[in-house]
Structures are given as structure tokens and as C-alpha cells.
From TrEMBL:
GO molecular function: acyl carrier activity; fatty acyl-[ACP] hydrolase activity
Ranges of residues in domain Acyl-ACP thioesterase N-terminal hotdog: 3-131
Enzyme class, spelled out: hydrolase
Family statement drawn from the similarity comment of this UniProt entry: Belongs to the acyl-ACP thioesterase family.
CDD domains: 4HBT (cd00586)
EC number: 3.1.2.14
InterPro entries: Acyl-ACP_TE_C, Acyl-ACP_thioesterase_NHD, FATA/B, HotDog_dom_sf
Organism: Enterococcus faecium
Protein name per Swiss-Prot or TrEMBL: Thioesterase
Length: 245
């Protein structure tokens, strides 16, 4: 069975929004740091991966949210590199409160990318071995993301601080563009229950992107559809289920 790794984290005020709950970028930053800490513990940190001319890139997230962590709360973040095949690695994360109740479950897909040509590389067995992940042949398919039929758009420019040490926009930053377009009134009267998101292309510093969105009423809430586009090209897409507060 794949090795699990758990660490505690106290949620700070600067990781939360006006609702006193963690923002998506902050939450994802904490869970990814947990996976990095596990990798370091197993001797498979970024320096080791970079020595092969490779870096990890996340292509998909699927989240089930019972509730978001709150400011001042001590949470436990657990991660497990579950499975892998020739090109994709499947890693899960769980966030629990102090009573052991599951707050959030995140399923993610990682790939190894060549630093120079920015193309996907096959999974290196030497990198993945210490995690004791199960090797599988099939490609696991994420739930289909529904396209926007008709909606609205706001433009954004990629800022210097949106770029991470891998010299591209950190995936967590896409959530700022996706969530911000929904507006104050919506975000203070709805809470997210489910998120599926796919990252298709890399965005670079100085790019002008468009955040397109559509809201669909559903029972007890709203489904929002999102697309990050640039010059008619799709860079990221997501669906989010929200419930009324």
C-alpha cells in the first residue's frame, strides 16, 4: 500500500477570506507543501527530480468539500501517492479537523514535465519507487467538465507574483481568476461543495487572460462553469457546485 504522510497546520487569518474560511489558493498551497514534505522525507524532493531535468506539474483536481477550514483552526493534512501509470501519477489529499472529521478530500493528477522543452515525460521509476504507489495500466478519467453555453467574462493580466519558482503561473492562482468573477454578493451567500478543474496550458507573465463564467441554478444552490482563455485558446476549465448558506 502507498505510504501516507500527515502534518498539522494552524489556519492563519491571511489564508482566509471575508467568510473566515480558507481560500482555494491557500488550501492548495498547504496540501502541496504536505506532498513536498513527504517527498523530501523519502529523498525525492525537488532537487532529486530536477537532477533528471524534470519537474512535477498538476493537471487535474477533483474536490469534495464538507466545509472549508476556518481561521484559527488546527487541521491535519494527509497525502498518499495512490497509483501511477506510464504518464500519470494519482495523489490524494484529505483535510481533517481536530475531532478527526473529514473536511475536504482532493484527488489530483500529476505529470513529470521536461524543464527544457516543457513537454510531458514518462514516469521515472527511480523517482516514484519510494512512495510504494500501485502501478496500473489504465488511465483514470476525471468527471467530464461541462462547457460554457453563454455567460460573462472579465479580463485579467498575469502579474509578477502570480509566477512561481517553476517560472509559470502556479495552478492555485487560477482559482483567483475563477472565483473573483462571481462577485462579493455571490461569494458571501454561497459555499463550495464540489470542484473539478483541469489545467490545459501554461500561462506566462504579462499574458492577458479572459475569465469566462456561467451560473446555472440547481436545487439548493448553483453550478458555475468556468473557462480561462487567451486568444480563443482554452487554458483552464472548471465546474463548481455551490450550496446556499
Amino acid at each position: 500500500m502507498a505510504k501516507k504522510y500527515t502534518k498539522k497546520h494552524e489556519v492563519s487569518y491571511y489564508e482566509c477570506d471575508i467568510n473566515q474560511t480558507m481560500t482555494f489558493p491557500s488550501m492548495l498551497g498547504v496540501v502541496i507543501k504536505t506532498s513536498e514534505d513527504q517527498s523530501d522525507q523519502l529523498g525525492r524532493g525537488s532537487e532529486f527530480v530536477n537532477s533528471f531535468g524534470l519537474t512535477w506539474v498538476i493537471t487535474n483536481y477533483s474536490m469534495e468539500i464538507n466545509r472549508l477550514p476556518r481561521v484559527g483552526e488546527v487541521i491535519s493534512v494527509t497525502t498518499q501517492a495512490m497509483e501511477y501509470n506510464k504518464f500519470f501519477c494519482y495523489r490524494n489529499f484529505w483535510i481533517h479537523d481536530e475531532d478527526g472529521k473529514e473536511l475536504v478530500k482532493i484527488e489530483s493528477v500529476f505529470v513529470l514535465m521536461d524543464f527544457v522543452n516543457r513537454k510531458m515525460s514518462s514516469v521515472n521509476e527511480e523517482i516514484i519507487a519510494p512512495f510504494e504507489s500501485e502501478k496500473i495500466k489504465k488511465i483514470k478519467r476525471q468527471e467530464k467538465i461541462e462547457k460554457i453555453d453563454s455567460g460573462f467574462m472579465l479580463p485579467y493580466r498575469v502579474r509578477f507574483y502570480d509566477i512561481d519558482s517553476n517560472q509559470h503561473v502556479n495552478n492555485a492562482m487560477y482559482f483567483n481568476w475563477i472565483i473573483d468573477v462571481l462577485g462579493y454578493d455571490f461569494l458571501t451567500t454561497h459555499v463550495p461543495e464540489k470542484v473539478i478543474i483541469r489545467f490545459d496550458k501554461e500561462v506566462e507573465y504579462g499574458n492577458e487572460i479572459e475569465s469566462h463564467f456561467e451560473q446555472i441554478p440547481i436545487e439548493n444552490g448553483v453550478k458555475t462553469k468556468h473557462e480561462i482563455r487567451m486568444q480563443e485558446q482554452l487554458y483552464c476549465e472548471a465546474n463548481i457546485i455551490w450550496k446556499n448558506k
